[in-house]
Write a structure and sequence with these properties.
Elements: H1 2-10, H2 12-47, E1 57-59, E2 62-64, H3 66-98, E3 108-110, E4 117-119
Antiparallel strand pairs: 1-2, 3-4
Helix pairs in contact: 2-3
């Protein structure tokens, strides 16, 4: 049982996943700090109110603190935008630069005898061995 566990842990994808979780946790702290310390004050400077937590209404002595929900929604939207524009878009551009040019698909034609697809430059069909005039 211990050998099986050690084999499971030693697999590359488990270690990669563990590293991704640790880096993700550290990156979460960076993004949250960026949003809290830079983006939210910028939004407050533009709209005048950085914190909605005091907003609420009550019905039959039940308090509905919709301001906390608004804070969570605004924070989610800001964090999502920051991640998209500072991580996803640049990574897509880097991957597009590294992507090799797509090779042209070889031209194919149909065999006049068996109607199988064969290369356009072929002189004989690889399926029925009929003689074919190259295109």
């Amino acid at each position: 049982m211990i050998k099986g566990f050690l084999a499971f842990i030693a697999r590359g994808n488990v270690i990669d996943l563990a590293i991704a979780v640790v880096i993700g946790a550290a990156f979460t702290g960076v993004v949250n700090s960026l949003v809290k310390d830079l983006i939210t004050p910028l939004v407050a400077a533009v709209f005048g109110k950085p914190n909605f937590s005091t907003l609420h209404f009550s019905i039959n002595h039940s308090v509905f603190a919709y301001g906390d929900f608004l804070n969570a929604v605004v924070s989610f939207v800001i964090v999502s935008a920051v991640i998209y524009y500072l991580v996803v878009v640049p990574m897509q551009k880097v991957l597009a630069l590294r992507k090799p040019a797509a090779a042209d698909a070889p031209a194919v034609t149909a065999c006049p005898e068996c109607l199988s697809e064969i290369p356009a430059a072929a002189k004989r069909c690889k399926y029925c061995t009929a003689t074919v005039v190259p295109a």
